[in-house]
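Researcher: Next sequence.
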Amino acid sequence: MPEKRTIEVPVLIVGAGPTGLLTANLLGTYGVECLVIERNPALTDHPKAILLDDEGLRALQAAGLADEVMAQVILGYGARYYEPDGTCFAKVDAPVTEYGFP
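Model: Next structure:
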């Protein structure tokens, strides 16, 4: 059985996905110590953060990553969400530049 140890940090981030890693990056920018823990020992083949809205892009901008990310982004045309029977229950149109990002 592995030895147990205690670590104290001001912020614990559970999950090393896009949101967890960006949060750690931003906290580090402000000098806040944090620890990121992830249960999966390896990368997955499944996509993460497949949709970014204007708020997500502003967070990336605050971390200095927006230009690099935007170079790889395919602009969307909105989204439609469907019930299992094929009925569309929600539609989100993509804003042009109302909030600073397409």
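Model: The chain has one domain: 11-40+51-92. Residues 11-40+51-92 form one domain.
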